[in-house]
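Meet today's protein:

…
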Amino acid sequence: MSKRLLPLLLTLGVAHAAPSLETVVEGLKTPWALAFLPDGQFLVTERDGTLRMAKAGAKPGAPIAGVPAVDAVGQGGLLDVVTDSDFASNRTVYLCYAEPSADKKTNGTALASAKLSADNKRLTDVKVIFSQKPKMDSRLHFGCRIVEAPDGKLFLSLGERYKGMAQAQTLDNHFGKIVRIGKDGSVPADNPFVATAGALPEIWSYGHRNSQGLALDAKGQLWEHEHGPQGGDELNLIKPKLNYGWPVITYGENYGGGKIGDGMAAKGGMEQPNVKWVPSIAPAGLVQLKSVQYGAAWQGSFFIGSLKFGHLERVKLGADNRVVEQERLFPDTGRMRDVREGPDGLLYLVLESAGKIVRVKP
């Protein structure tokens, strides 16, 4: 090939390979989430209650000691993990999990902080900083995604536990809510319902179903996605005090057919989704790509894993937060439980059934 022709082919895109997947870690058991450590290793949660170290190209490490007791039933177990923004100096991590009651008859979503030992073998100083109220006898809809905001506050998504769907519309419980707390579990004075009689002060927004995606965009805005029932999955821009409608409004229907409630998709005082999926893709994991590793077309897009169809969903929004691009990548790859952007600017996917972490190669 001539030296003159090659630049032309590159410009036209002829010589560019499509992004592909490469396996980074395998041999995991029902992995749910991953977090990146400064030394290049990963923390990985397994739903049965195991937290492991993992390294690219190596077998997963032995279980890390000190994980709090989890209720690994149904959709519950050890779920999300994130590292503190100052992890390099304080070794702090946050875990979200299904917390059993003392009599083990009920459970709820909980958030704990802990310190990872210098040898990466144990958790110490474990503290439960948030516990969903009330607990419930349910195996479903724990939510359980964690985000640290630029001001150091923590956001946590909470499912309505399925049995508590009607209570997603009331403020005296944590079902179907996103909450905001300090790293010590304290309630920020500027939370929207602090002065509302009868409201739990941790609540930031309400009317959610089961959110397994929570992320900040490049502007510091909070986004979440949630499972609809049969149809009606949503991507929402989250703002304080707003009502996102479940179960009063939805674009989905009951499993097996039939309307939910009055069968409405819109109502005054309730937010419409920025993106909706009918039929459902069963979304899990959410990140807005900030790097330029994949070129301008992908930068700024949201990436969402699909549990139902096993693909990676790419959604790009315009200045008005409406969809301008949407595509399905890597079809039939397997149940994607988490999507993260690594320190290297590449996308990492947690494949639940395959027990793998894979990386998207540019």
In short: The domain at 16-361 is CATH 2.120.10.30 (Neuraminidase). The chain has one domain: 16-361. The first strand starts at residue 20 and ends at 25.
